[in-house]
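Quick one, T. Sequence first:
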Amino acid sequence: MAEWISENHKLLEYISIPFVSGFIGWFTNMVALKMTFYPLKFWGIPPYLGWQGIIPRKAYKMAGRATDMITQRLIRVEEIFERVEPRQMAREMSPPVRQLSEELVEDVGKAANAQMWTMVPAAMKDGITKRVNEEIEPMIEEVVMESKRNILQIFDLKHLVIKNLTGENVKNLNEMFQRCGAKEFRFIELSGFYFGFLFGIVQALIWAVYAQSWTLPVVGVIVGYATNWLALKMIFRPLYEKTYFGFIKYQGLFLRRQKEVSAEYAYLVANKILTPKNILDSIIYGKTADQIFSMIQRHILTGLSRIEGFARPVVEIMVGSDEYERIRHYIVEKLTSVVPKSVARVEKYMGEAMDLENTMRERMQKLPPDEFEALLRTAFQEDEWILILVGAVLGALVGLGQALAFG
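Structure tokens:
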């Protein structure tokens, strides 16, 4: 075997060149893709010696572009909130709040004046809780109605999107690009091998005629550069379907999948970013917590003012800002976690009423190709040259190793 290899080493060199060239194409494309997404945080010596994935590094800008896409082309905030019925929301939210009312009354009373609250008769505490329960449903209905009337003033959609795509949540941004462009990223990897192999055949022919070692790293540069460039071009161009040679129809790979990608994107936005829970946390729960606190405090003051022996100055109890924030946070926390089954019904209704996923999917499927392209192209556009350059450098290194081996 060793003797055969020795006798046919030139033939093996020629045969190996296309495969090595294919490996260069695959390897450089694979590394370029990894560098697009990882690492999530800067790795190395700041600020310049090291690397952070292109998407995590540009997270705020890309999240801003995602917001523009969502708000300018897919949904209007007023429209989706108009679909929510205040009375139905109140019916869904009231049961969990009533379950908490006794605890909340006790907590607010202690926070206001713990010593005085211990002197309040149990019957009066029960009476306060009962009156609070009677007001809960109409109060929540009013909160929802007021929120709808002033939705553009109180709901910052851009802030909510950016918050859920950046910082500790940048993994959501990565996931959005990776899932929407999964087939395209796979194509980039595999096309590196195919294109590289074809370049390698040409390189083998050149090597047979002109066996100079310097040609190997040079061709490595060309393969590393060209495979990345060709793959990106084939994903996004042409924008519209074109016919070549009278019978071959072709359109950018990503653009051909507009319906499929639209469904994936709409699902991710509706279930990872603009979820009913995130929206409720942002508006309704917080505002409801304010109103619940004010209502409970009002009933406590009213009740205490009727008890003989309490002087007027003592009755005018106050809660400091720090303690108020603690109770407010406590109320929101209770609403969202202590009674998950009840809250799940609230969020289910909210999700069904807004119908975000279907709305976004239908409208995204109707976008013109140049606007739809931006959904994935932003992952590459600004630093596309870096990825192509990385491919060229890695190709040169592999080609150099090949030259040393053949030399």
